[in-house]
Amino acid sequence: MSTTTTAAAPNLLVLTRHGESEWNKLNLFTGWKNPALTENGIKEAEIGGQRMAKRGLKFDIAFTSALQRAQSTCKIMLKEVGQPDLQTIANEKLNERFYGDLQGLNKDDARKKWGPEQVQIWRRSYDVPPPNGESLKDTVARVLPYYKETILPHILKGEKVFIAAHGNSMRALIKELEGLSGEEIVKRELSTGVPIVYHLDKDGKYVSKEILDN
């Protein structure tokens, strides 16, 4: 992946999807439910943190969701970079997409109940929500105002920011950062526990990124 010089991209933002959770392992729709990390998820977070430490990354502030799988990932990774006591702000605006009636259901069982095509539409369309839940478009509408009002000002001050969140709240941020369409962002796959380092210009605009997957 490409990198940039400090002069070209003075601002740094690192995004990480939480490590594997108990419900990821069980193939359940999780959403705003609150399962813990698996042993493998803990290991993923440790490895992700070690990769950040190897590159000398340090942060001025961290943000995470109100859910324990993201909070645990955040704590583990910050410990690995030698910042276990870094100021960390948790807010439900960074929560995973709310899956409504699907939450807690096995994905295979949901396919049997509603049909595989309908479930796929709910999972991978941009603006079609599951019953009583959020579409990705709804998630973007929740996440972006919080990012612009609360997180971006820290970046624009030159602070290095770390965010540990979820697949769809990260997609909301990535859509904004990379200027992607709804169709493009729903296709973006995000691995658990893998940091994505964004280099941003003085106005907080995307310059380049590096995925720390090795």
Provide a brief overview of the structure.
It is built from 8 helices and 6 strands, in the order βααβαβαααβααββ. It has 214 residues and is an alpha/beta fold. A 6-stranded mixed β-sheet has the order 3-2-4-1-5-6, sandwiched between helices.
Decide which structural class fits the backbone.
Answer: alpha/beta
Helix content: 40-55%
Proportion in β-strands: 5-15%
Q: Kindly, what is the distance between the CA atoms of the first and last residues, rounded to a whole number of angstroms?
A: 11 Å
Query: What about the largest sheet?
Result: 6 strands, mixed
Gyration radius, rounded: 17 Å
What sort of overall outline do the alpha carbons produce when their principal axes are compared? globular
Q: Specify the CATH architecture.
A: 3-Layer(aba) Sandwich
CATH class: Alpha Beta
**What is the number of strand segments?**
6
CATH topology (fold) name: Rossmann fold
The name of the CATH superfamily reads: Phosphoglycerate mutase-like
Q: How many domains make up the coordinates?
A: 1
Query: Total helix count?
Result: 8
List the helices and strands in order: EHHEHEHHHEHHEE
Low-confidence parts: 1-7
Strand line-up in the sheet with most strands: 3-2-4-1-5-6
Mean pLDDT: 95
